[in-house]
Amino acid sequence: MTALDGPEQVRARLEETGYLVDDGLAIACFLALRLGRPLFCEGDAGVGKTALASALAEALDAPLIRLQCHEGIDASQALYDWDFPRQLLHLRAAEAAGVTDADRLEGELYDRRFLVARPLLKALQTQPSVLLIDEIDRADDEFEAFLLELLSEFSVTIPELGTLRAEEPPVVVLTSNRTREVHDALKRRCLYHWFEHPGFARELAIVRRRLPDVSARLAEQVTALVQELRGHDLLKPPGVAETIDWAEALDALGADEVDAELAAATLGSVLKYREDAERARGMDLAAVLATRGA
Questions:
Q1: Judging by DSSP bridges, how do beta strands 80-82 and 162-165 pair with one another?
Q2: Is the preceding omega at residue 170 within 30 degrees of 0, hence cis?
Q3: What are the Cα distances from residue 34, in Å, to 13, 78, 91, 171?
């Protein structure tokens, strides 16, 4: 895997991919790479946690392997499973050929060619790789405990095959939207970074980097509006992803700038709850555009 000599080089390589980082995140990424520790990223949805893993994979020239967590996820979904249809076909073919040795048949059925590698095992077997464990807060306590053991050893024991260990541990990024608290035992295993919503200047730079064809004035106005929206008591404050979506939607409408009427008409690109949209329409959007969108 490509070596990065310090936080500034990490920052530069990530910025080459279009992902802009501040000093704290650049240092956290560098330490995760240098120390071989998982990086636990926590914050509101849409602030760039998942995008960081994609940018790291691109910067390191390594494949991104993603495990999307959900309620009830278990080891067979995350680690490995057996290809039962192929095993059954093999068994029938062996029986048709007159093979009667039970021990031989069992050994053939649990051969690695019938092993289906899920994301965690795939990451252990792929060197180099970046493993994204997305939205770990959606999984349950038992899966957290299983994951803690796996990330401690970067190995897994398959009863039929023995212990499989990563020759080169993957770079691991875990994300959480904080829908529930993740246990301290898992957090202690990781380096931690809290993702704040960026300030105006950095968010504008992100929008301009991601959408270079959008007019400068439109990008400034949309960023100013989103910054204002976050200051209100919304059910779901918009993230950077929504800022980009809004600017892209307005650009698709042929707008080089936005007024209060157009902003109100396109709130569905940035706000996803009716109550939030109603609250936004009650704001003085024209005043925001006059003071910060110039």
A1: unpaired
A2: no
A3: 15, 26, 48, 10
Please choose, from the candidates 77, 152, 148, the residue with its C-alpha nearest in 3D space to the C-alpha of residue 116.
Answer: 77
Q: Distance (Å, rounded) from C-alpha 76 to C-alpha 120? A: 10
Spatial contact of 76 and 31, defined as CB atoms under 8 Å apart: no
DSSP code for 269? G
Helix (H, G, I), strand (E, B), or coil: what is residue 10?
helix
Residue with tokens 């995350």: 78
Q: What is the pLDDT along the chain (294 residues), one digit of tens a residue?
A: 556 789 999 999 999 999 999 999 999 999 999 999 999 999 998 899 999 999 999 999 999 999 999 999 988 889 998 888 888 888 888 878 887 777 777 777 888 888 899 999 999 999 999 999 999 999 998 898 888 888 888 988 888 888 888 999 999 999 999 989 998 999 999 999 999 999 999 999 999 999 999 999 999 999 999 999 999 989 999 999 999 999 999 999 999 999 999 999 999 999 999 999 999 999 999 998 988 644
Which secondary structure element, helix H or strand E, spans residue 27, and what is its range?
helix 23-35
Residue 46, φ and ψ in degrees, nearest 5: 85, 10
- CA dist 84 and 99 (Å) reads 19
